[in-house]
Amino acid sequence: MKLCMVGTGYVGLVSGVCFSDLGNDVICVDKDINKIDLLKKGKIPIYEPGLSELVLKNLRNKRLTFSSDLKTSVKNSDIIFICVGTPTKKGGSSADLGQIYNVAKELSSSINKFKVIVTKSTVPVTTGDEIEKIIRKNNKKKNFSIVSNPEFLREGEAIRDFIYPDRIVVGTNEVKSNKILKTLYSPLISKGAQYLNTSRRAAELIKYASNAFLATKVTFINELANLCEKTNINIEDISIGMGLDKRIGGRFLRAGPAYGGSCFPKDTKAIINTAERFKTNLSVIKSVIKSNENRSNLLLNRIKNLLKNRIKNKNICFLGVTFKANTDDMRDSSSLSIIPALSKKGAKVNYYDPTGFKSELNRYKNVFFKQNIKDAIKKSDLIIIHTEWNDFKSINFKTFIKGKKPIIFDMRNIYSPSKIKQQGFKYFGIGR
């Protein structure tokens, strides 16, 4: 099939590349000409394991192309995926749908034959209705179908998630567009993916409801970790014991920092906004948001206690600053609230992350990026394992550290407390 992916951000690029690898002809479109020029050369603007190899492979096979010409790309395609960003509106909680609606207006004049127009971006309920109104206003032939097909890709594992999805959700009541999408996804369905056809509005809500529930699991286990610390119980025993219950499952039951990234923070706010629009109270999700907002402050206070409130002139090392491993995404990472707070109190903060220097931290006083683990932890009073990169899971601290032994605060519980203590270090985890 001939596909057009509008937007080469995380969702559009990963989905487009993977569709091309399934044998489709894919045009990825973006108005950022510099970005398109880089992509044409096989240079990837995001960190995602395995993506670069797939881009180069499908560029060579001429199944994948990049363009800034939306009009021509739409005319030459059968299915158009809208994959632009839907960030939280500045100063508010609702999703900013400006980019979505602009794309709808632009492509409406380029519909030269029947097109399936798919929203892959995460959008609130009724967005598909609005897109349909916009296009109908500018397209009198009405030779199109608007479909909701939310993505469920995890950063750092996106390629695998696309190829082996748990489910494929397609929101449309039209037989023709449903048949086309089912054919498109047939290679994945044959591998065992569940195909679910719902109403368009239901598909829109499924994505938000899924992310809100996962955010709730993260927040729930983080709160239980607080209780475990007070009762001398290992939170990992609780996580395993709960996770073995098939009704609950073990995924997203690992205690740690506040949830962050491109999805959970904005999507929990957006579903609350939608509920308020329809005069419904989602009190559980409101509590989740509040608890998560408090999480970074709680961990900051923990750091203060470990250093006996003597923050000024202390050398603090952060190993990992992204919101999770295997991504360069800094959006709503708890490091963005904890590090500035430590800097303000006079600490010197060194950090190392496998994805490199972070401009988001550059404006803070006495915050320095280090090129390797050894340089980052040198002369540290406190080492914080913030992100669970594999690079950090087998560090022999004794070989790196001479003289005074720093406190190790493992926010991801990747180390055995007894082994670290045997090396002569003071060790603290989460919920342990």
Explain what the structure shows.
The protein is of the alpha/beta class. It has two domains: 2-197, Rossmann fold (3-Layer(aba) Sandwich), CATH 3.40.50; 199-432, Rossmann fold (3-Layer(aba) Sandwich). The chain is built from 17 helices and 14 strands. The mean pLDDT is 96.
Strand and helix layout:
Elements (H helix, E strand, L loop, with lengths): L1 E5 L3 H12 L3 E5 L3 H8 L10 H10 L3 E4 L2 H6 L3 E4 L15 H11 L6 E5 L7 H12 L5 E5 L9 H6 L3 E5 L3 H10 L1 H4 L4 E5 L1 H32 L3 H9 L20 H14 L5 H24 L8 E5 L15 H10 L3 E5 L14 E3 L3 H5 L4 E4 L11 H4 L6 E4 L6 H6 L4 E2 L4
Parallel strand pairs: 1-2, 1-4, 2-3, 4-5, 5-6, 7-8, 9-10, 9-12, 10-11, 12-13, 13-14
List its traits:
six-stranded parallel beta sheet; Rossmann fold; alpha/beta; 2 domains; 432 residues; globular; 17 helices; single chain
Q: Number of DSSP helices?
A: 17
Helix content: 40-55%
Structural Rg: 24 Å
Arithmetic mean of pLDDT? 96
* Biggest beta sheet attributes: 6 strands, parallel
- By secondary-structure content and strand pairing, the structural class works out as alpha/beta
